[in-house]
Design a protein that fits this description.
Layout: H1 20-25, H2 40-44, H3 46-72, E1 76-77, E2 80-81, H4 84-111, H5 120-137, H6 143-164, H7 167-171, H8 177-203, H9 213-237, H10 253-266, H11 272-293, H12 295-303, H13 308-337, H14 340-356, H15 363-391, H16 397-428, H17 432-457
Antiparallel strand pairs: 1-2
Helix pairs in contact: 3-4, 3-6, 3-8, 3-9, 4-6, 4-16, 5-6, 5-9, 8-9, 8-13, 8-15, 11-15, 11-16, 11-17, 12-13, 13-15, 14-15, 14-17, 16-17
């Protein structure tokens, strides 16, 4: 991939003597790596708010809302009455279908504009609309209304997410994308972890009849975090001159014709390496989602916690802490020694942690295993995003990265459909469903690691396919085999 970036969007890697921690977290000192250029923090901090909302809703609020609607009505689909795990899985699954389609579509639209800052209107409109829709989660009282609100949230949230996916590809040179991916995932983890911990604390005090205010405290927190983080990225990454209203049509006249010829000449289909990567990503998401979605119910039914929200709260802290201290070293090592060896370690950690949960029956061992889960999650998060950015074309970065949402959908769908199977198997034998899902997670981790190790071993990273003039950056075609 070409290293000649536009003067306002290139070579932002800070090679000073400051520590990695300072380069990652120092908001004041790294608001901009250089005058007029966005820093890694600026490119990443939007993820703090988006991930905070999704995990806060998905892990902290949605299970409680599902229990409320299950208690007040029979939820029936195609003649089958859903229980709590099945209802939660169906809502999450349908939301992911919408998410994949919207993320792919909005990403492709943002690719059609050649100007710097072309991703930002989508991030701004989608992020603020998501904040508005979060309010309505608190007003839902039926399964249909809850499902409708979650789907609208997916529409707006992924309208923002699709274009934002390409910020690293737009602004970071290929040799630094491991570190940039690590910092992005650090902010993602910080958002998911901190917001979810607080939301779970609030929701542990929540009661629909006697203490409904705790639900609203949770929603207000998520909205505030989302708005601040989205505005931060939009303001810091915004071009120094000119409006950034999106152009949904391609360049006109001779410029369009010239660019089209160059794109046609060098345009590549999705390669086998990228397709294999997407398959492996689906396995990774399936493994991680199956362990995340049903964690609260696992702690309630298997571990026997009377207030599983408190246990889930501590478990989230442990996982996020260990994932957080993993993502940055993983990103740096990925740039220096490559991705393959790290994928092997990530897979082993995932398989071992999933298997150990089969014999865990108290909160202490679960928390210890959670530390290993965090290491595996941190490695997979950073490495997969770095490899994804290695394999895409800059001319269609958001669209190509949007295919990861399809892989996410497939992997998460497997995990969410498993909710029905968990309920059925639990009826056959106590906690049999939870044991089955953990075995499934271990197998998925192993398959993902094997495929990703092979994909990451190919020497395709940073290889240039075409060189487009700086004036056409964003619309030119450049990619890897």
């Amino acid at each position: 991939m070409d290293n000649k970036f536009h003067s306002s969007g290139a070579k932002i890697n800070d090679k000073s003597s400051r520590s990695l921690f300072q380069r990652s977290i120092g908001i004041i000192s790294l608001g901009a790596a250089r005058p007029g250029q966005p820093g890694y923090v600026d490119l990443s901090i939007y993820a703090f708010g988006l991930s905070g909302v999704w995990t806060g809703i998905g892990s902290g609020i949605l299970p409680f809302k599902v229990l409320e609607v299950i208690e007040s009505e029979n939820v029936e689909i195609l003649g089958y009455i859903l229980e709590k795990n099945g209802a939660l899985g169906i809502i999450s699954l349908l939301g992911l279908v919408v998410a994949a389609l919207v993320q792919l579509g909005s990403g492709a639209l943002s690719d059609r504009d050649s100007r710097l800052g072309k991703r930002l209107p989508y991030l701004l409109v989608g992020g603020l609309s998501l904040a508005v829709m979060a309010v309505f989660v608190g007003t839902t009282t039926t399964f249909i209304s809850l499902l409708f609100v979650i789907l609208l949230m997916q529409i707006f949230g992924n309208f923002a997410q699709g274009p934002a996916n390409a910020l690293i590809a737009d602004h970071v040179e290929p040799t630094a994308r491991g570190e940039a991916s690590g910092i992005l995932n650090l902010w993602r983890l910080l958002g998911a972890g901190s917001v979810t911990v607080i939301v779970l604390q609030f929701m542990s005090r929540y009661d629909a009849e006697t203490s409904p205010e705790w639900l609203w405290y949770s929603i207000i927190l998520m909205i505030a975090v989302l708005i601040v983080s989205v505005l931060w990225t939009v303001i810091k990454v915004r071009p120094s001159s000119g409006l950034f209203i999106p152009t949904l049509r391609k360049n006109s006249g001779s410029d369009q014709e010239s660019t089209a010829k160059k794109s046609k000449k060098y345009r590549l289909p999705i390669t086998r390496s990228y397709l294999a990567f997407l398959v492996a990503l689906a396995f990774t998401i399936a493994a991680m989602s199956s362990m995340q979605i049903y964690a609260l119910f696992f702690l309630q039914d298997v571990v026997g916690l009377e207030n599983p929200a408190d246990g889930a709260d501590i478990l989230v802290v442990v996982i996020v802490l260990f994932a957080g201290v993993t993502v940055l070293p993983a990103g740096l090592l990925a740039d220096r020694i490559g991705r393959a060896y790290l994928f092997i370690f990530a897979g082993v950690a995932g398989v071992v942690s999933s298997s150990m949960l089969l014999i865990a029956s108290s909160i202490g061992p679960v928390l210890a295993i959670g530390a290993l889960i965090g290491v595996s999650v941190g490695l997979f998060m950073t490495l997969t995003w770095a490899v994804a950015n290695d394999l895409i074309r800059r001319s269609s970065a958001a669209r190509d990265l949007g295919y990861t949402s399809i892989a996410t959908l497939i992997g998460a769908a497997a995990a969410r459909f498993a909710g029905i199977g968990i309920d059925e198997l639990n009826d056959v034998s106590e906690n049999l469903g939870y044991k089955a899902i953990l075995i499934f997670a271990a197998i998925a981790f192993a398959l993902a690691s094997a495929i990703l190790t092979k994909v990451a071993s190919y020497p395709v990273y940073g290889r240039s396919v075409s060189v487009i003039e700086p004036s056409t950056v964003g619309s030119g075609s450049a990619g890897s085999d």
